[in-house]
Structure formats: C-alpha cells, structure tokens
Amino acid sequence: MDKKENLFSKNLEYLFETKVTTPTNILKVTGHNSPGLISMWKSGERQPLVKDVIAIANHLNMSIDTLVCKDLRTYKEDTTDKINNLNKEQKDIIEMMIDNMKWVNN
Fold first, then answer.
1. pLDDT score, position 105
2. Which one has a higher pLDDT value, 43 or 82?
3. Which end of the chain has less neighbouring CB within 10 Å, N or C?
C-alpha cells in the first residue's frame, strides 16, 4: 500500500473524528449502502473507486489532491487553495466583497 492510499484512509478517519462528515453522508454521496465498505476504506483494506473519491471530494468541497495526498491532520490550505476550492457562487460573493472594499478605500 502506498502513502497516498494510507493518507486517504487516515483522512477519512480524521473527517469522521472531527465530525466534518459522517459515514452515513459518505454512503449517500457515493451511492453505496454498506457501512462495512466505509470501515474497509478507513482500515485501508480496500480502496475507493475514482468515482467515489470524486464524490467525496465534491461533498467536502475539497480538491481530490487534498483528500488523497495531504495529511488533513496537519495540512493548512493557503489562500490560493481555499479560493480554488470555492464554488462559482462563493467566488462571485468574494469578488463582490473585494469590489466593495476597493470602492470604500477610494
């Protein structure tokens, strides 16, 4: 098992521990119905399909790279990562806020 696989398992466990999401939510977003599958992902016994990783990353509003390759216990997103992980509506709101700040400062 390589480091990326271990990080996915560790990250999944961390996300549950910190209550960012739940096994039930992960089952819903991936379309699975077996809690045992989640346990196997957490233990590293099985690895999720790519479509499952994509669904989980989207559910968490997180890049696949962050979910699979970064240790979430120690990872701190920089501002660029945070902006890149926003959806279009969130980016539009940030852009409007920046435009308003420019208006106030001029």
1. 52
2. 43
3. C
Contact in structure between 26 and 55 (CB atoms under 8 Å): no
Please, what is the end-to-end C-alpha distance for the chain in angstroms? 56
Cα–Cα distance for residue pair 14/9, rounded to 1 Å: 9
Q: What residue spans of the chain are helical by DSSP H?
A: 3-17, 23-30, 35-43, 50-60, 64-69, 79-84, 88-105
Task: Indicate the pTM of the whole model.
Answer: 0.69
Domain ranges of the chain: 3-75, 77-106
The domain 3-75: what is its CATH number?
A: 1.10.260.40
